[in-house]
Amino acid sequence: MNPDSLPVFNLVTMNSGITSSFDASVRAQDDFFEHVNGEWIKNTEIPADRARYGAFDRLREASEAAMRELIEKAAAADAEPGTEQAKVGDLYRSFMDTDRIEGLGSQPLSDDLAAIAAVHDVPGLIEQFGRLARQDVWGPIAIYVSADAGNPEENIAYLEQYGLGLPDESYYREDQYQPIREKYIAHIEKLLNLAGHEASAKHAQGIFDVEHLIAASHWDNVASRDAVRTYNKSSSADLQQLAPNVDWPVFLAALEAPDGSFDAVVVRQPSFLTGLSAALVDLPIEQWKDYLSWRLISSRAPHLTDAIVQESFDFHGRTLSGVPELKERWKRGVGLVEEALGEAAGQLYVAAHFPPRAKERMTELVANLIEAYRRDFETLPWMGEQTRAQALEKLGKFTPKIGYPDKWRDYSSLTIDADDLIGNVRRAAEFEIHRQLDKVGKPIDRTEWLMTPQTVNAYYHPVMNEIVFPAAILQPPFFDVDADDAVNYGGIGAVIGHEIGHGFDDQGSRYDGNGALRDWWTEQDRSRFDSLAKKLIDQFNEQSPADAPDVKVNGALTVGENIGDLGGLTIGYKAYEISQETNPAIELYGFTPAQRFFIGWAQVWCGKAREAEAKRLIAIDPHSPANCRCNVARNLVEFHEAFGVTEGDGMYLPEEQRVRIF
To answer: Residues in domain Peptidase M13 N-terminal (predicted)?
Structure first.
């Protein structure tokens, strides 16, 4: 067939809820993203309650609607008190009881605000940092628990910078964000007053000044993704030396951390702690108290009165992301249930929506992707024999998790009361922080999942060396158990390849097959890899989101995900070829198998964003915009051959400029 006259055809089944369509006025050879998705993009309006909309979002809508039905059934059922079904229903009912929420006003915050008001010195402030962190109201310091990258058989606490109300430290220093800073200060004043916490413009400015000072010590996004620089194992004595004005025993006692759980911690940004320590005595205690009251009120805003909710959304939704309308209340209620009782709700989802046959087909796909990587590593020209042997060893230790956990989380100790929304939020937070801190120093649980089954996403965990694919992403356009192999391999196959590729990207490659952070590459191989990664950084630095063409992608921030996309697409194609070794595919719908593969890839990235959101994501998101992710295909000779791309075409990339890492 003539690649210049590709027919308009939708490969995605209608029951996927997506009507992605080709734009025949744009040639595949000039802009593959616009060619495959252009008509959908032109004819689809972003829903008023969303900042962006596309393939992922349509599946999230489907998952959200499915969860609503299941949760509302649980809320309407006469379930036995204390059961997980009853807790799911009671939590949802507590959020939907708007009469009670309006009647209470900000009264549910009164005890916490009084405790902050009673502070008279820095140790008292540190105690409130710890007490509120236990309730998921984090001040400048945040904590999470994960496998120790230096000893991946045990869990350890990680301590990192936090405490900003704007998306990123750059928002506090770059001139382009000055209008947002001004709106943020006005927002602080208005929200505090709506919550009954009398504040003037001076108070709001003072709170912003605290954040500005905190931000000055924050590492930027590129530095904070460096696996080596951010692994700083420290003793309790080290913590005291880094931040002498932080009374760590007081903080940990208020956090209710088990004895000994912070004898060793990983400090991700040590200089931030030093800067924070100085800031604690450089600013008046009253200013810090105002800041902490702000952290409490802004954190609880989504669960308070409608006026407070609307003001919070006006800034975070409209100003930062350009979203016109707040999500319907039921959607926010579903979100709360999934946040607090995610796996309890997930059990309901799996029982209703995940057929065993899908898991069987995915297992086959994953096996072919791993085999494709194995074959690739055996002949990879830039990889020497020593690194190759260890790369193959790591690949052999990959653990795939598909659909849902083998062992579900136990929520029996969590109390949920249908008449106490804020209490439920507090208790759910305390349940989770205690669950996390209780893991410190203990062997890692390899059955644990970091996403719920109803989540439309996937991830690679470098310390666990595992790839995880929740049930909800295993639907068209990513995956269809009954679909053509070419489309499946271009969709979920390339996504699987992407996640495996993270094990060998610029940061994942720092971890060995056991998840230990160590340098297992030869110096020569690392240098060759870094040269290829630098070419990819430079390539993406020249690209822009389709929805905000006046800004450029940050190639250094997105390089890991770009390597994942490029590797996933490359190895996904190899895996598809493996799948066809015994039963070669034929032309279908006027497309060759290779063309169907790349169309499957492009449909995954079908989407659009509001301009404000596109710009916000450029500043903070390690993923490139959808059009750039799709058009990474221009690096593949297989793409050039499939569509007859030649010099002068928009998708053409000279051979010397193409990057092929895997």
So the answer is: 29-405
